[in-house]
Design brief:
Number of strands: 14
Order of helices and strands: EEEEHEEHHEHHEEHEHEHEEE
Number of helices: 8
Distance between the termini: 49 Å
Mean pLDDT: 89
Structural class: alpha/beta
Radius of gyration: 19 Å
CATH class of the largest domain: Alpha Beta
Low-confidence stretches: none
Number of domains: 2
Strand order of the largest sheet: 9-8-10-11-12-13
Shape: globular
């Protein structure tokens, strides 16, 4: 590559975030269904698939997947017969890009009506610890540190200590990988804080509500629909969490000063 600034032109090697396609095929009651192509950063592909299936309401637990195999960049998932797969709602008509949450869907009605467990209310997190969690999130993004081209999603404990973190070139994929890792090996109780490195869109808020995490924080901005969904479901939604500041959009009772 060639780096150019106002004074210099320098040839150098550069690290890039990998983006490649993953084809996902579902088998339910002997019938094959294609979920199309998902553009993602390879790695944690099993977690990604579990997270996608859970977030879209196709599975409820890891027991809903009888088997999952990946050959090169093609995945085959055999679902339990009890799964609620509706081809008209879940199938995508186009490739799901790394920047996309609901691309290729004919309708978002299924997403808007997916609900999760009741969100826990008997606790609060210290605002200073949440700010420190934001710094921890940023400093723990190893792929981003090398490439500057990935997003991250992470679980934090009630003391705002990092539990687990996933990275991907797509922000929705990063969160699906994190959710999938939880679905495959659940933690009890569910982590109280979920942090994302970018903005808080309604798709990410929906995934958080679906899983039952009571507080979602983002380094970037929140969208109007994200805030509306958070208020409706009693989710504490924080945005612009950085440099010791934050914006609390909903359910502020879970944020304490000490």
């Amino acid at each position: 590559m060639l780096r150019i600034d106002l004074q210099n032109r320098i040839s150098a090697l550069d690290a890039l975030a990998v983006e490649s396609a993953l084809a996902i095929k579902l088998v339910l009651r002997g019938e094959n269904h294609s979920l199309g192509l998902t553009m993602r950063t390879p790695g944690e592909d099993i977690d990604l698939i579990f997270g996608m299936l859970y977030s879209e309401g196709i599975i409820d637990t890891n027991l809903d997947v009888n088997s999952l195999s990946i050959d090169s960049d093609e995945a085959k998932v055999i679902l339990a017969e009890s799964c609620k797969f509706d081809a008209s709602e879940h199938m995508r008509r186009t490739t799901k890009s790394s920047a996309c949450g609901v691309c290729g869907k004919d309708s978002i009605s299924n997403l808007l009506h997916i609900h999760g467990p009741r969100l826990r209310d008997n606790f609060s997190l210290n605002k200073k610890l949440i700010s420190q969690a934001a710094e921890n999130l940023i400093s723990s993004q190893r792929i981003f540190e090398l490439t500057g081209g990935t997003h991250a999603a992470a679980f934090f404990s009630e003391n705002c200590e990092l539990i687990s973190l996933m990275e991907d070139i797509g922000r929705h994929n990063a969160l699906d990988k994190l959710i999938g890792s939880y679905i495959r090996q659940p933690i009890d109780p569910i982590p109280p804080l979920l942090f994302v490195s970018g903005r808080a869109s309604f798709e990410l808020v929906q995934k958080c509500i679906r899983l039952g995490v009571p507080i979602m924080a983002s380094v970037g901005a929140a969208s109007t629909l994200a805030v509306d969904m958070a208020i409706e479901h009693n989710l504490t939604l924080l945005s612009f969490v950085r440099d010791g500041r934050m914006v609390v959009h909903s359910a502020p009772h879970r944020i304490s000063n000490n």
